[in-house]
C-alpha cells in the first residue's frame, strides 16, 4: 500500500532529489542559518524533494536532538513547496525514535537507513522495517545497501506492508534489481517506488532507466545544481547527447576523484558546497576532509562542468 501524498509527489519528479549536507559552524555545532539557506537554495534551484539528514547529511554524526532540529529547519525552509524525507536508522528501537522525531518535526516521509553493524537475515530485516513502519504515520522508503541486501520475495512482502512505499537501491546489482521490480509487479503492486541510490547516481542512471527506475538521489545537486538539473532534464527527455557529454566530461571524472579517498562521497560534496560560496563547515569524525590537491581538482572539475553546459547552449 502507498501513502498517496508522498508517493504521488515523488512518482513524477520535476527535478533531482536533493540530499543536503548538514552545516556546522566554527565551533562544530550545527549552523541552522547556513543549513536553511542551503536547503532553500536547493529548492529554488529546482529540487523535487529534500532528503534531510540522510547519508550526505551525515545522519551517523548527529545526535537525536540535532537531527530533530535539522529536520524541522528543512521543513521550515521548504515552506511546503516540496516534500521533506528524513533519515531513520540504527537498530529498531533507535530507528523508531528517529522516525517519531521526524514526524514531530513535520517531515513528509522517512528513508530507512541500514541497521547499524549487524548483517541480519531476511526474516529479521522484514521484521525491522515492519516495526518501523508500524511505529509512525509517515511513509517509509527502505534503503538497500551494504549490510542490507533484500531478496525479491522480501521486497514483495515490504511492498504489501502498510506505509512502506518504496525501495532505494544503493547495492547496484542490476540483475537483482530487475528481478525485484518484476516480482513486485507480478505480485500486483504497481505503484511501488524505486530509486537509484548509488553514489553519484547520475553515472549509472542510464542503466537504471532501462529497468524503469526514474528516481535517483543527486549529491552533486548540493554544489552544482545547474549541472545536476541539466542532466536530469536530459535523462527525462531522452537527450542522449547531453547525457553522454556530462557523464564523460563531468560525472565520470568526479567519480574518479571521489574514489581517491574514503568517505569522499560526503566530504568531497561538502567541500564543493564551500567552493561555491556557502560555508557549511567541515565533516565530523570519523570522516575527514579531502586532501589539498583533491580540492584543487574539484575546483577545476566544477569549472569544466559549467563549461560543458555552455557548450550545449
From TrEMBL:
Pathway(s) where this gene product acts: Carbohydrate acid metabolism; D-glucarate degradation; 2,5-dioxopentanoate from D-glucarate: step 2/2
EC numbers, comma separated: 4.2.1.41
Pfam families: DHDPS
SUPFAM superfamilies per the UniProt record, alphabetical: Aldolase
HAMAP family documented for this protein: KDGDH (MF_00694)
Catalytic activity: 5-dehydro-4-deoxy-D-glucarate + H(+) = 2,5-dioxopentanoate + CO2 + H2O
PANTHER family, sorted: 5-DEHYDRO-4-DEOXYGLUCARATE DEHYDRATASE 2-RELATED (PTHR12128:SF19), DIHYDRODIPICOLINATE SYNTHASE (PTHR12128)
InterPro entries: Aldolase_TIM (IPR013785), DapA-like (IPR002220), Dehydro-deoxyglucarate_dehyd (IPR017655)
Keyword Lyase: yes
SMART domains cross-referenced by the UniProt entry: DHDPS
Name of the protein described by the UniProt record: Probable 5-dehydro-4-deoxyglucarate dehydratase
Alphabetically ordered keywords of this record: Lyase
Family of the protein in this entry: Belongs to the DapA family.
Top-rank taxon: Bacteria
Lyase recorded as keyword: yes
Amino acid at each position: 500500500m502507498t501513502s498517496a501524498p508522498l508517493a504521488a509527489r515523488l512518482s513524477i519528479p520535476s527535478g533531482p532529489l536533493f540530499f543536503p549536507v548538514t552545516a556546522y559552524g566554527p565551533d562544530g555545532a550545527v549552523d541552522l542559518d547556513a543549513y536553511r539557506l542551503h536547503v532553500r537554495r536547493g529548492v529554488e534551484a529546482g529540487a523535487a524533494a529534500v532528503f534531510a539528514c540522510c547519508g550526505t547529511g551525515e545522519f551517523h554524526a548527529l545526535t537525536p536532538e540535532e537531527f530533530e532540529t535539522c529536520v524541522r529547519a528543512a521543513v521550515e525552509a521548504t515552506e511546503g513547496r516540496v516534500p521533506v524525507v528524513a533519515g531513520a536508522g540504527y537498530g529498531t528501537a533507535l530507528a523508531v525514535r528517529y522516525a517519531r522525531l521526524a514526524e514531530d518535526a513535520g517531515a513528509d516521509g522517512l528513508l530507512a537507513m541500514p541497521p547499524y553493524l549487524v548483517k541480519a537475515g531476511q526474516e529479521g530485516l522484514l521484521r525491522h522495517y515492519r516495526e518501523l513502519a508500524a511505529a509512525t504515520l509517515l511513509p517509509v522508503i527502505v534503503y538497500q545497501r551494504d549490510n542490507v541486501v533484500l531478496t525479491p520475495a522480501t521486497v514483495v512482502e515490504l511492498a504489501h506492508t502498510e506505509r512502506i512505499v518504496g525501495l532505494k537501491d544503493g547495492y547496484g546489482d542490476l540483475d537483482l534489481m530487475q528481478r525485484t521490480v518484476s516480482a513486485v509487479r507480478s505480485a500486483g503492486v504497481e505503484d511501488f517506488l524505486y530509486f537509484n541510490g548509488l553514489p553519484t547516481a547520475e553515472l549509472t542512471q542510464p542503466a537504471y532507466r532501462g529497468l524503469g527506475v526514474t528516481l535517483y538521489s543527486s549529491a552533486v545537486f548540493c554544489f552544482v545544481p545547474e549541472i545536476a538539473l541539466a542532466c536530469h532534464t536530459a535523462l527525462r527527455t531522452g537527450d542522449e547527447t547531453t547525457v553522454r557529454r556530462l557523464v564523460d566530461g563531468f560525472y565520470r571524472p568526479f567519480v574518479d576523484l571521489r574514489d581517491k579517498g574514503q568517505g569522499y562521497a560526503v566530504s568531497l560534496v561538502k567541500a564543493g558546497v564551500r567552493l561555491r560560496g556557502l560555508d557549511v563547515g567541515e565533516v565530523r569524525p570519523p570522516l575527514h576532509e579531502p586532501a589539498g590537491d583533491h580540492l584543487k581538482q574539484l575546483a577545476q572539475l566544477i569549472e569544466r562542468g559549467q563549461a560543458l553546459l555552455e557548450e550545449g547552449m
